[in-house]
Specification:
Radius of gyration: 22 Å
Structural class: mainly alpha
Subcellular location: Cell inner membrane
Order of helices and strands: HHHHHHHHHHHHHHHH
Membrane topology: Multi-pass membrane protein
Helix content: over 70%
Strand content: under 5%
Number of strands: 0
Transmembrane segments: 20-43, 63-85, 97-118, 138-158, 170-191, 197-222, 248-273, 293-313, 325-346, 366-388, 395-413, 425-445
Protein name: Na+-driven efflux pump
InterPro entries: MATE_fam (IPR002528), MdtK-like (IPR048279), Membrane_Transporter-Flippase (IPR052031)
Number of domains: 2
Distance between the termini: 7 Å
Length: 464
């Protein structure tokens, strides 16, 4: 099946300009999602109290874990679609979309039903404070109802990125965030005919926003006759293709495990910090808020590089794959470097957003920022190179390298040198881990066998 050439082809045009224009909407979307979480937390924390905020925080940990579980599979679908579009094989691209959609539908429904029934037990396992549990159960059960729409929405957005379109996902994400932020106070407090729902209203706002934006995105895809849409007479694409399903799982799980490696190492690091008391923990927490935004450019560029490299791998444009890697590293240094410079120039003022200006932990936060922040430049290079190599299907080496840098270098250094360096051992472990990742990722990119990796076996002649 031959579809018309995509308007979002990433295999032609200036590499740097194409990558930057593709990455910026991804970056803006990441910022939007973080702001959405922060705004919702403000409404809950300021107007519903500490117990409600604790409930939302515990429920969101469950949500982020569940979204992280499917992140790798969605990323695998993105790469598969990108390779198929780059090769001009639209029939196989539709098979990827159909199999992925059926898989996501089955998984999301199973998780939603189980989660709705087991919400109290899940929160009990997490040792959620007793006074927060009634709020958390009400909030989490509605979130579980929203989960199928969240999963499918995430899948659609990442599929569009694989096809070379990052602008459309951003616009519909903007719609979703705007609806969520607008509906939160209306449903929490009850305005006009709307009932006062408390914390359940915040969860219902998320459900409504996701469902509305998903419906609008689907309507847009069919109205614009998108080449990857499935229409009447194409139900066969929804039948599970064993080879594609195997690639989604076998390639997707290691990419999802990267999120587990990062989050689990973060839990260990915070436990080490906690031993130094609440003042140090508050300082670390404030700095971590800034670090989230500093790392966003590298994450966005890594995702953009993956989509762009995947299309060029499919088109066998290896020259453009190499140039995409180079452009991605330069953009990481430019964008992340700008944020790093801003933090160093306004270190105290930036931390003052999260800590009172007379807080005892402010000096500690400034000190640890001075040690850590520059290293995110080099951690970002690792993520950009990961984006390139996984575009071929080489997904296990990035997982191993991330495990080495975080679990075999950063955590042991932080633990073993505390007697000599005190809390500074924790802070200096961040640059050490980042430099380790830079070195091993660069060596693997230069000498590794990632160019021979495959997501799927080559398509038969004719592209069917």
């Amino acid at each position: 099946m031959n579809a018309p050439a995509s308007r979002h082809q990433l295999t032609t045009g200036p590499v740097g300009r194409t990558l930057l224009l593709f990455a910026l909407p991804v970056l803006a979307g990441n910022v939007l999602q973080s702001l959405n979480v922060s705004v919702n937390a403000i409404w809950i924390g300021h107007f519903l109290g500490e117990a409600a905020l604790t409930a939302a925080s515990n429920a969101n940990i469950v949500l982020f874990f569940l979204l992280g579980v499917v992140f790798g599979v969605a990323m695998a679908a993105t790469i598969l679609v990108g390779q198929c579009v780059g090769a001009g094989d639209w029939d196989r691209a539709k098979r990827v979309v159909g199999t992925s959609a059926a898989f996501f539908a089955a998984i999301s429904l199973a998780v939603a039903l189980a989660g709705f029934a087991l919400a109290p037990q899940v929160l009990g396992w997490m040792r959620t404070p007793v006074d927060a549990q009634p709020y958390a159960i009400a909030y989490l059960r509605i979130i579980f109802l929203a989960l199928p729409f969240m999963y499918f929405y995430t899948f659609l957005m990442m599929t569009l990125r694989g096809a070379g379109d990052s602008k459309t996902p951003f616009l519909f994400l903007l719609l979703s965030v705007a609806l969520d932020i607008t509906l939160n106070p209306l449903l929490i407090f009850g305005v006009g005919p709307l009932p006062r729902m408390g914390i359940a209203g915040s969860a219902l706002a998320t459900l409504t926003a996701q469902l509305t934006s998903l419906a609008a995105l689907l309507a847009w895809l069919y109205r614009r006759r998108h080449p990857l849409r499935l229409h009447r007479g194409e139900a066969q694409y929804l039948r599970l293709d064993r080879e594609i399903l195997r690639a989604l799982v076998v390639k997707g799980v290691p990419m999802g495990m990267q999120m587990v490696v990062i989050s689990s190492s973060a839990l260990v690091m915070i436990s080490l910090v906690n031993a130094y008391g609440s003042q140090t923990t508050a300082a670390f927490g404030a700095a971590s808020q800034l670090w989230t935004y500093i790392q966003m450019p590298a994450l966005a560029i890594g995702a953009a590089v993956s989509s762009m490299a995947a299309q060029n791998v499919g088109a066998q444009r290896w020259d453009r794959v190499a140039r995409t890697a180079g452009a991605g590293v330069l953009f990481n240094f430019a964008l992340t470097g700008t944020l790093v410079a801003v933090v160093y120039l306004f270190n105290r003022a930036a931390l003052g957003i999260f800590l009172p200006h007379d807080a005892a932990g402010l000096a500690t936060a400034q000190h640890l920022n001075a040690i850590v922040v520059w290293s995110f430049l080099f951690f970002g290079v690792g993520f950009v190179l990961f984006g390139v190599v996984r575009a071929t299907g080489a997904v296990v080496p990035p997982l191993v390298m991330l495990f080495v840098s975080l679990w075999l270098v950063r955590i042991p250094f932080a633990e073993l040198l505390q007697r000599r360096l005190g809390a500074d051992a924790i802070w200096w472990s961040f640059p050490l881990g980042s430099l380790t990742l830079l070195v091993i990722a660069s060596l693997y990119y230069r000498y590794g066998g990632w160019r021979e990796a495959r997501m799927l076996a080559p398509a038969p002649a004719g592209g069917a």
